Each structure stands twice: as C-alpha cells, then as structure tokens.
Amino acid sequence: MKFGVGQSVKRVEDFRLLTGAGRYTDDLQLPGTLFAVTLRSPYGHAVIRSIDTAPALAVEGVVAVYTYKDIAEYGEVPCLVPLSGPIKTPRTLLAAERVRFVGDGVAFVVAETREAARAGAEAIEVDYDELPVVASIDAAIAPGAPKVWPDAPSNLIFDWQLGDGEGAAKGIAGAHHVASLRIVQNRVAPTSMEVRAAVGEYDATTGFTLTFGGQGVAAGRPMIAGILRTTPDQVRVVTGDVGGGFGMKAFMYPEYVLVLHAARALGKPVKWTGERSDAFQTDSHGRAMVSDAKLGFDKDGMITALQVETWSDLGAYQAQFGPAIQTMAGGRIIGGVYRIPAIHNHVHGVMTNTAPVDAYRGAGRPESTYIMERLIEAGARTLGIPADEIRRRNLLRPDELPHHNGLGLEFDVGNFPAVLDKALADADWAGFPARKAAAAKRGHRYGRGMAYYVEIAGGGSQDEFADIKVNPAGIVEAAVGTQSNGQGHETVYAQVLAERLGIPMEQVRIVQGDTNRLDQGNGTGGSRSMAWGGAATLQAGDEMVARGIELAKTALDDANVDYSEGVFRARATNRTLSLAELATLHPGALDGRARYKPDNPRPTFPNGCHIAEVEIDPETGTTKVARYSLCDDLGILVNPMLVQGQIHGGVAQGLGQALLEDVVYSDDAQLVTGSFMDYGMPRADDMPHIHFDTLGTPSPTNPLGVKGCGEAGTIGAMPSIINAIIDALDGVQIEMPATVEKVWRACQALETRVAAE
Amino acid sequence: MQTKLTINGVAATHEVSPATLLVELLRDGLSLTGTHIGCDTSQCGACNVLIDGVAVKSCTVLAATLDGAKVTTIEGLAKGDELHPMQAAFKENHGLQCGFCTPGMVMAGLEIVRRHGPNVSAETIAHDLEGNLCRCTGYQNIIAAIGAGAKAMGGKSNA
C-alpha cells in the first residue's frame, strides 16, 4: 500500500502552506475587527499605585481600555498542578495591585487600528512603586531575599522528593568514584515563529468564539468558560494553522480571555496579535534550573547510585503545568535506562520575578537526561573507561525488561545496547581519532560526546477521541482531538485511517481544531498524538465499519456482510455497497465518535543514542558541530519522512540551547534578551548535517506500536553536544549555552595551564 | 498618499499612509496573508517578498517608496494547481513543518537562485539563509529543498 504505515507520504498540508493559503490566527480578518494591545509592566516587581486610562481613551481610534477592576469578576489563569500546598500564586488576567515580572499585563487597550491600540497603550499613565526583586535562583534563595509572594514563608514554594533517599546516600558513600557536578540548565524561550495571537467574537445567542493558535481546543474550552464564569456550551474554540508550539502554545494566556471579554463588551470581533517582544516577555519559558548531582560508580564503572537536588525556577507564577515539569513529568525519568540500584531526586520549586516557566519541547525529560548524561560521561573520564563502554556496561539489557526504575516507571521494551551499537556504527566511532588528528593539524580542538536518552511519551493520558463522518461521496472525514502545530497530522492520521479502511488517502480527510466539530480530546503535547489520537482514529474507523456492516446486512438482505477496501459485500450474493452508496442510503448512519480508553493506560518510552563531534577554533572560541548522528528507537514509524523532520527540528532546538540560546534577566529583573537581536536562535549555518537512523522496537502500549518522536531530538542533542565540547576541552566542564566567549575563555585557560606545566 | 504597484501581475493604485510598511499593505490592506510577520526587527525573513525580482524583507520597506515596482508574494508563484518548482521542491523534500517561515524561505530560495544559479552548494545556501529563521525543521530539509528547487528551475530566474 503506497500510503500506508511506514511510507514517507508527502504532506497534504503543504500545498496550502506553500501557496500562502494557510490560515494562521492573525490571517483571520473579520469585518469590523478591533485590535488590542496589552500594556505590560516595565518592572520586575512593583505595586501599582494608580492607573490613569483617560489619556489612552483620548487617543483617536481607541475604543476601550480595560484594567483589573474591569475584569475582577473573572477567574485566574490556572495552575493545574500546584505543588505549593496552601500557598497560592494566583495569576489574574491583568495585574491587580502588584506586578511580578517584566511583561505582566497591566491594561488591555482596544482600538480601531493596530497603531491606535499601540498609541493608546503608550498613553496610559501607571504610577508604580518599585519593589526589590529576585531575578535568579541564587537571588531568590539567598537568606532574607525579597519575596515574590509575601504570604509564602520564602521563595522556595515547594519541596518534592522521589526515590530511595537512604539507598542513594549509601550508594554514593560506598562508591569507588563519585562524579559530582553542579549543572546549570539555561532558561530558553520556545520561540515559535508565529507569535501567539487570538481573535474573540461574541454572539448573544451562540456565545463566545475564540480563535487562537493552540495545541488542542477541547481541553481549553471548560477552562475558558470557568474563567469567564460561564458554561462550556457558551464557548466555541477554534484553531486554524499553528506556526509552531513546542509546548508553549498548549497553555492558557490572559489575552485569550481578554479578547472574549472585549468582544462581548464592544459587540465586535477583537484581535490581539502579539509582537516578538510580547513573546519573549510572556510566552512560557523553558528549563531554568540548577542541580547538584552525584553519580556513584564501583571500580568496574558500574553505577551504584544517583543523587540529584534541583532548584527549578518557576518564574513569578506557578504556570499551568510549571511545577510538574521537573517533578512528575521529568523527575521520574532521571537516571535513564541504566541499571541503578538507588535513585533519589529532590526538587525545590523557586519563585523569581521572571516570566513563568512551563513545558518546552521535552518538558523535564531533556533536563533529567542532561543531568544523567553529563554525570556518566564525567565519571567515565575519571575512571578511564570509554564513553561507549561505560554505557554498554550500565544500560539495561532486553532480558532485564520490564524494569522498575524505582521512581514509579516501568520500562517495558527496547534493545538499548543494540541501539547503542548501531549509533556507534552510524557515527563511525572508530574513525574519530583520525578526524581529531586532522583537526589538530588545523590548530583546532576536536571532541565527541554521546547521550543515551529515554523519555516518557504520552504520559498522563487517559483517553482520546476521534469522530467520523462519511459524506454521500464516500469521503471519510475524521475529526481528531489532537492538534498539529506543524507536525503534519493531517497526513499521518490520513495514512493510518486510509490503510485501516483500505481506501485511498484522497478519500480521507482529517480535521482538527473546532469544538463545534469535536468537543472532546486532550490535544497535542508530550509526544502523545500518534499513540493516542492515532489509536482513537483507528478505533473510530473500526466502529464505523461495524456500523456499516449492520446497515449493509439489511440493505443487502444478507446476514453475513464483509467489509474491505471501501466496499461492503454480501457473502451469499456477492452484492456490494460502497461507502458512498451506504452513506447516501443512510445519511449520517455511518457517523460516530470513538473514545479510545485502554484499560491500563501506559506511557511509551522512546529512546536512542545521539553522538556529536565538535571542532573548536581556540583562537576564536567558535564551536562547530562537525558531525551529528543518531539512532533512535521510536517504535513503529508511520511516516519516516515526518519523523526525520521532527528529529531534525528537535536536534536544532537542543543545539540552540547548548550553544546559543539564553534568556537573560539583569539583576534588577529586566529582560535583556527581548528580541532576535539579543537572543541567539540557531540559523542554517549553525546546523550540522544530521544522520538519522532508527532501530525500533514496537511499543506494546498502543495499537500502532508507535512511541512518539516530537521531543526526542531535543533530548539527545543537549547532552551529546555539551559532552563533545567538554571532551574537546580535555574534560573541562562547561555549562550551557557554550557561547563563543565561554569556549574561548576555556581554551585560553587550557593554553595557560599547558604553558605553566 | 498613493502608490502604484504591480502585485502578482495585477497593477493597481493603492492608498497608503507614509508610514505603511509593505507587509502591512499586503496583509491588512490586500489580504495577501501568505506573507508573515515573525519578529518586528527584520531578523527572521518570514515577510520576504520579491520586489522587481529581488528578495526583500517587506517589513523594512515603506509601501509609498515603491511606486512603479513589481511585487511578487507567495500567492503569486504557483500557476493554479501547479506549484512553482521552488515550492514543489519544498514539498518534495519536506522543507516545511508549521509553514510559518515557509513563504519567506521560498522567496529566499529564489533569491539564492538569482545570486548563484542552478548548481548552488549546500554550504552557500546555508550561508545565504542567514537572514531567515525557522524553528521547526533544523534547516536541513530547507537547504535540500532550495538546492533541488534551484536545479529544477534550471537557468531560469525568478517567478
């Protein structure tokens, strides 16, 4: 089957997106639309004494200015996983009496044009009393530090521990060697190329319509209704094309509700389109943590214990999933797929006067992997064991699976040593010394680094939905509860459904992003879509066929009807009805919604081995990733071309964090990196050619056997690239981002050391 | 004030303010929403269009200064259902994911062909994409797409 599972089918989305016919949120141009701008706090921490909106209302074209008092009756932007106990960190739609980070919303200006809205925002006079700030983890946890939340005992808002504390302490104490590192994971900005935007509409009969670029419409609907103090049936949520999300667009942001409030109040559609500076200031950030980590080894390099203590910067508010990222999401996978007798993971949640931190591509799993892979390679170096060999000794073998990691996870299937070996072959591991020697002749340092990662994908999911309609032409339309942000879901879902139904892909249409069409579903995130949405789609197809068979029995007057390739066939008479004929005969009767809900929902465990080689010019500190190859176990690949694309993009984001990207706040909590002029995005010539390979073990947790691929690339890239740089620097530890300056300084220090010796 | 432009082959006179950027005229004025705004600081290239055959960031140009110019946007490349060879190469090589940077990338690809001809190297493409940001693809397939598109275009120039 030329479009079935395993085929690199070209994308059905592409014609639209390549011809300018995509429909991103800001492309929506409704008659009479008003434009909104959020006035944001210029201070990291301040009390709002007063706001004078009169000058803004005097600006020609400004029709309304909203401040907290106008929306005080509404609910807050919720944190769904607050770990702070009785201490709350409520984020109102606009700041009430206090702003807590640069970018905190203070007023929402609506005008007839974008220019007028901007001018109106500039005209508002806000009287602030500046307060002392904490702009970093160190500042926040210092004794006597100013508090982001005055009612909290300190900025340490929660304390979370998991694993075997006593066992880990013993394992570390009794170890032959302990690799001990303080590891910084820089704050990064997700930076979708499409900045967040939202259009609000209100109709007295049908209620609110929100059009926005999100990662799923159904889950947000009750949340929006709750904030607006209305019922979900009064809210329609629509998402068109989305210009990248990376986790960040899964969350509720104040503007999504403010446009609805304004639309109702003003009786016109209201559009808010963020600028890039809005994005840097207010999109949820990622990572932002520091860890003290210890990995114990016996004399043979076998791991004895892992002990990690992390301070996780949550920003000024506990974001929607913010507290969960380093704990429930990523904290349980620390230690990877190694055989570790005792693991203890201790996470402190820290409030700072910075933008809220939440899930960003990988969401805790890159961070955990990064810690482990830095440690194991540091240990290997001291013990004199090659990087591949120490991993081979410690990786779980297939005969040891399933394996409980002691943190609540059971690794089910995989062949980690085989993946490692294939990755070594792909990387021409043996050819490294020659490449290093060649670089040395150029006067360059050369190093290689490895990472063996595992992630939990589709975790936390309980169910997923797909809703099928068959029209009289026989076109099978499946609405799915997930949401593509560029991954190509319209293509892959069509592939799996077309294959299941035995019909051409052209006969299948995948739709998403409208609660009027499908009001159930958990959206896209955590690399869950294929495992859950794909399974729901298959189930919906099967259920449609079952309905069709029943209908055809009557229509064909035969108790035995079979289905294949779009045709229902009576066994006795061989008479047939096509999908189109049956749908015409019984309009709507084939339609139906499937809920995929496995009895024992389990996550999948994508894993793999990434190997990077870097060449450093010590004169300039320039690091070039010279070679990059990987072998991943992503289970079954529905569309290898799309999977490869996901991995490429993931690696680029990991490379960006490793070498370039850093959200910087000054000590007074000003955002220094507020545009692409200050924030180091990876560009085309920063990227190596990525050699992609797989060795898949099908996942037993879902009917397609897929494991998820959206986040894998990022997870493998950060540690492999940094380990390569450390290798090139003869073991000198370096923290992300390994900028030109940092690397140059490290090279200079090494030269000085060599000269002194 | 008025400016006379030929946009995607259609000549017309447009009423603009002296401060109207070309990208604003295209998107808000003419509903040619295929040209995207990604950064506001001329760093990302999502708003690239061709002005008299040369790729220009349309967020850097005042519409009023373009009197008499020919502008080609992403909407002006395909002929009906038939993609321009550069667009087709992006599809064939999976050179796009979310599609937001894509119109600008396609225009950058045409610019690269204009500068370097049909046999441009991957290194040159990567270098010349310095003005375009993509967050999804890791650029590898964009570079491949532009290389393939350049070949498919042969010696022919833009659009």
Automatic annotation (TrEMBL), chain A:
The lineage of its organism: Bacteria, Pseudomonadati, Pseudomonadota, Alphaproteobacteria, Sphingomonadales. InterPro entries: Ald_Oxase/Xan_DH_a/b, Ald_Oxase/Xan_DH_a/b_sf, Ald_Oxase/xanthine_DH-like, AldOxase/xan_DH_MoCoBD1, AldOxase/xan_DH_MoCoBD2, AldOxase/xan_DH_Mopterin-bd_sf. It holds the Pfam family MoCoBD_1. The keyword Oxidoreductase applies. It comes from the Bacteria. SMART domains: Ald_Xan_dh_C. GO terms for molecular function: iron ion binding; oxidoreductase activity. This is Xanthine dehydrogenase family protein molybdopterin-binding subunit. It comes from Glacieibacterium arshaanense. Keywords: Molybdenum, Oxidoreductase. Residues 19-132 form the Aldehyde oxidase/xanthine dehydrogenase a/b hammerhead domain.
TrEMBL record, chain B:
This is (2Fe-2S)-binding protein. InterPro entries: 2Fe-2S-bd (IPR002888), 2Fe-2S-bd_dom_sf (IPR036884), 2Fe-2S_ferredoxin-like_sf (IPR036010), 2Fe-2S_ferredoxin-type (IPR001041), Beta-grasp_dom_sf (IPR012675), Diverse_Oxidoreductases (IPR051452). The lineage of its organism: Bacteria, Pseudomonadati, Pseudomonadota, Alphaproteobacteria, Sphingomonadales. GO terms for molecular function: 2 iron, 2 sulfur cluster binding; metal ion binding; oxidoreductase activity. PROSITE patterns: 2FE2S_FER_2. Residues 1-77 form the 2Fe-2S ferredoxin-type domain. Transmembrane segments: none annotated. Keywords: 2Fe-2S, Iron, Iron-sulfur, Metal-binding, Oxidoreductase. The keyword Glycosyltransferase does not apply.
